[in-house]
Amino acid sequence: KEILEKYHDKSTVHWEGVIGNMHVPSQAEWEQLLTDCSAFLFYGMERFMSHLLLNRLVAMNISKCHLMILLDLVRSQQSYRRITNSDTHK
């Protein structure tokens, strides 16, 4: 949040996304964010790919996204439980 507040007016016209404990984005919301962005930053406690279906990601047109930074696998007990439950159903 501090970074967004500091650089909001300097580097971009519009920041959009999900921050903190707002909610868990749906598959459709991830797809919308990825297809509409010029730069994408993921900083999460889980694997980035645990949030998306691989076949949907491969089929997406993300040509407008010129920069993608993925920082994942920051672990906590809560994230470990969510990944375990998600992997069980795949």
TrEMBL record:
PANTHER family: CILIA- AND FLAGELLA-ASSOCIATED PROTEIN 46 (PTHR15977:SF15). InterPro entries: CFAP46 (IPR039586). GO terms for biological process: axoneme assembly; cilium movement involved in cell motility. This is CFA46 protein.
